[in-house]
Every structure is written in C-alpha cells, then in structure tokens.
Amino acid sequence: MGEADRWALSGSSAGPFWRHLLAPGSDHINMASGDEDDPIIEEIDVYLSKSLADKLYLLQYPVRPGTMTYDDVNHLSAKIKPKQQRLELEMAMNTMSPNYCRSKGEQIALNVDGTTYDETNTYSVKMMDKQTFSSMQATTNTSRYAAAVFRKGELHITPLTGILQMRPSFSYLDKADSKTREREAANEGGDSSQDEAEEEAKAITVRFARPESEQARQRRIQSYEFLQKKQAEEPWIHLQYHAAKDSRSEHERQYLFCQSVDASQNSELVKTPKEYLAMLMPPLAEEKFAKPVGPSNVLSMAQLRTLPLGEQVKTLMKNVKLMPFANLMGLLASGSDQTSVLRCIQQVALLVQGNWVVKSDVLYPKNTCSAHSGVPAEVLCRGRDFVMWRFTQERSVMRKEITSIIKLPPEDVKEFLEHVATPRVNRGWEFLLPTDVEFIKKHPDVAHRQNMLWLGIQSKLEKVFNFSKEDFMPKSSPQPEPVHVSGVQRLKLAQERAQENKASLKRSLEARHADGSIQMTQKLDGEEEPMDTSSSVPNGSVNGYPGANSPGVDHANGGSPANGPSPELQEFVTNTFRKHAVLTLNELKRLFNLHLASMPAGQNVFSSISDHMLQDAVLLCQCKQIMVPFPAQSKAAPDERKVFGLWEKGDDFDKHRRLLYDLFTKNYRIRRSAIQTKLAQEFGDVSKAEVDRLLQECCICNAGYWYLKGTLQS
Questions:
Q1: Which of 188, 255, 331, 687 could form a disulfide with 51 if both were Cys (CB 3.0 to 4.6 A apart)?
Q2: What is the DSSP letter of 556?
Q3: Does pTM top 0.70 for this prediction?
Q4: Do residues 363 and 436 both lie within one domain?
C-alpha cells in the first residue's frame, strides 16, 4: 500500500553484513570451515534495506481465513496516524452476493442514517454497502521482526515499523445509538420536574483554580480521558490504496531491496559462535511492568475484605452513599458480626427512613472544597445535613426550596440530592429507597439513638439557617397525637372526629348538588381536599362515563357540566386523544404541563386546573376510562392506573378500538393472536394492516405480549 505522495526516504546501509552458513539437516550453525562433518554447501549474502524501514507495516486479518484475501475487494479509502500506528481501511461489500441479507443491510442503514438524506450519511445508497477495518497493535516491540525478499542468491531484509491486526469496526452502531438518543430526547424534551426549571437570572460563582500538585498531574495524564484527548490530537493522514498488481505497488516493492550493494562498502560480520548464538537467542530478561495507577476510589472486593471491618464499612458507604443494612451485610466478608457492623456503621453514616446514608464529613473532609464551586467543606456539610434532615421528615423535597434556604450553588445542591434521591415529574426529588421498616422493628435501640442524634442536628440547623420544624409541616396534615393519650381517649377522639367528618361531608355534598357540580369534597380539620369520585359516578354512569341521567350535566350545552372544563381545556384534551388514542392520567398530565410550558408568556388561558377538572374534560371528549386489571404485584401509581381511551372518533375504526378496550378490561396483557381472533369473530375477515394499525395506535409490545400504552411497568 503506497501513498499519494511517498514520504522522504532515509538512507540505506550497505551489505552484506552477515554470511549465513547452512548445511542440510544440521542442528547447529558453524562459523568456521574446520568442521568436516558439517560442510558448507552454500553462502547467501544478506543485505539490510532501510528505504522503507520507518513506514513498513505487516497487516494481519485474524477474523478471516488466510485463503480468503482482500486482494480483489474494492478498497474505498485508507488513512493512518503514524505516531499511534492506527490504520483504518474502508472496503466495499458485495451486496449482490447470495450470502448478503438485503433486508438486514437496509435496516442497519436506516438505524444509522435515519430516513432523511444528508451528505454526512454513512451509507449513501440506503444500504450497508461497506465496512471499516480498524487496526490494533499486535506487539509494541518489532525490533526482532523484518520483511525479507530473496533474489538471485541475495536475501534483502527490511525492519518492520509495526505489526497491525485489522479487525472490523462497529462505529456505525455508536452512530445508531446516538440517533436513537437524539430522537428520545426530542420526544421527551422539556420533561422535567417543575423544581428543575431554570430561573431567568441566577447568581454566578467565580472560582480560581488551585495550583496542580505533581501527584494530581500524574493521575491526570494517566487518565483515560487524557489519553483519548492526546490520541485525538494527532491528525489522520489520508492514503491512496494501490492493488497488489498495480504498477505503483510494483515500484514501491523495489524499495525492499538494498539500493547500494557496492562490494567496497560491504562489512562482513565476524563473530565467534558463542557471540553469534547470543545475538540470535539473547538470554531471557525478566520484564518489569509498572503497576498501573488506578483511580483512588476503585477497590476490588478481594482488596476490600483484607481491610479492617471499620475501614470496609467506611469505604463501602463512601462509594455507595445510600444502602440498606441487609445489603451492607451481604457485601462484607462472610462471618462478620452484626453487632460490630452496627457499631461501625454508626460512626460513618446516619439512619434516614431505615436506610443508612454516609455522613457529610466523610464525603467532604476538612480542608477540602467543592469540585463544582470551590465552597469550603464546612459549608457543604451543613447544607447536605439539611437535605438529609428533610428526608427524615418526608419522602420528597423540592430542589428550589432547598436552594433558597441553604444558599449554595445549584450544582452542589443537585449533587446532594443525586446521592439519595431521584427526580419525579411534578413531585420534586423522591428518596431512592423505600422505608426499611424491618430494620427499625429489629433494632429499635439503634433507631431511637439515631432519632436523638437527628434532633441534635436539627437544633444546630435551626440556628444556622434560621428556621423551625413547623415551617415544613404540611398544613393539611393532622398533628401527631401526644404519646401520653390513653387508648380510651383515642377511641373517643376518633369517634368524635368521624361524626364531624360525616356531618361535614353531608353538608358539602348537598351544597355541591345544589349548584350542579359532580365533584364532592370532604372537610378535615378545617381544610377542604378534593375527593376522587370518578369510579362511582351515580345514576347511569358507564365505565366512569356520565350517562344521560347523571346529575350536574347541562344538556342544553351539549352535556357539559355546569362550571366545568373550559373550551380551551376540552380542545386540548380532544386534540391530544385524537393523536394518542390511549393515555394514562399521569401521561396526560405530563403532556398538559408541556403544553403549558410551550405557551408564550402572558397568554396562558388555563388557571388552576386540578386533576378532577382534567378527568372531567376527558370524559366529556368522547373518551372513556378503561378498567385495566393490573396484577397484584404491580407498583403502578394511582395516576398510572387510570387509563383513558378514545371511544368515538367518527370513523369505521371506532368499533375495533371499543372491542380492544373490552379485551383489556379482562386482562392487562394480551397476545396478538387472541386480539386477531376476537376481531375476526366480531367483524369477519380483518386484514393484517388493520390489526397493525389498531395495535400501533393503542398498544405497545413487550416479550410477545401487547399492553395498552402506559400500562407496561418496567
């Protein structure tokens, strides 16, 4: 393989420098002529050529038999990075071969390039018609390897620059993955928690980098990111490929012969047999390999279990940050004493909702600072302790509220939350693990001790951040009863409260019916909360859809409830269901929030839309609730269990959708064959295209089963 413009040639040395004396069947080499039992039969001059010494590579193809060469394959392009000895060859594929699967080739091209045509497309013919081979070094030391050619009794050898193994490159799969991620990001754009919204103006923290220590510099230059960056800095040199029988290739092969064979410059190699054999087979020297310096936070389980018990617990908690006690015992060496582990864990972690969270001063030791903003460790510890304390009070917190109190940069607050929580749509950040009730029941003394510790931390935080616990108590939640109240008193108090609630509910219901509303409220401790009655609408409701005799329906206005959903809301719901056909209440709320976020500022026509108003609008827009029988072990939230489907669109496909909804009221997942059989029984011969359209419009497939959209639980 040559280049468009060959590199500058280095000078070649004169030879022969070595006379190789061979005898048939001999097992040793004779450097003198005195041994009559091993006569010299021929002398061969060996020449050293250096014309191609710095650009000669041996290419190996380990994934292809030696009888199947690439000589007759069309080479589309070639490029090389000489310093790294990286070579890439692009070869055409025979798409007309009987061994080529055309459908697979088209599918791969579609995944990589998408449906649009662009100059940057990998496959311009909408089919995988080429493949790329990328090199890796077979050895880093090629001093013992050379290429040799024999001509007219002369052996010419050229040292090899490198030995490269060419293997197929699958970089097109990375491009396909990135395309998929871009499409998912475009579909889910803006889907984030309300507390994650960016503010129009925010404070900017300016920090100055500290001088880099020698140890930090060594770690940086040995890091994978640094090596990748250095490799990317070397530019590719594009080459021109010439076939083996091409005239240019024949011209390049001439450089494998020594260019100067003048006898006056010849230097005969004169060595003793012992020296010569030592040159051929040098004594083995034990190679010393430097142990790679790994990241400071990487430790194998075998190394971990050699540490003392306290160090094991500290290392695990520092890396995991949040862990149930049962999981911790499983990671420690077998036979670890539970009492000792409990003693160690309380030194490095705090109990939050029955789970152990690493202490802030373990994560942020003294005399350190934030990697994001440069904030000192003492300030970080106070802020993180406040976040952990909030999770001892409730399952979810709002990031914006946290930031307004602890006054730390958003990057640091996000890091605190990511340690122990995950963002939820419209619910802020929710604690990662469920409350470990079993641990609290099994170790009440530890739970009590940790509770007292949190009370001490709370008192310190109240002084630092100037707040009280009552500031975060939900106003509608009843205050906890004092522990000294007797059982008889509690029973009497509960009976009185039940009577008050019953009377309040009756009055509220009468008032609502009087003004034509179908929404009921209940009054608890002086606060009103909406109560969901969508599954029990009286007088003629069918599957959650109000019938003709339902109270509160204004028939003069086409069946809209008095003071019900606004026309704008009904228009949004109608358009959404005509597009998606099937939606859970949770997904509908997400789409509604996206719709609100996309509206220009000052043009929002929606005001205080509750979940009940949204459900009423759905039921009044030719939609019905589908009572899907979720499995008993399902962890779906209440909003995810409420599934609504488009009941009447005005086309011939309405009857197919209604039959499908009826099937899903009997089972939460159905085989395609069962759906197709039922359609054929009801409507006669139904084409495959119609079944495909129905399933794609309303369902999603997983593991051979079809589920209504939004009902498939991960």
A1: 255
A2: G
A3: no
A4: yes
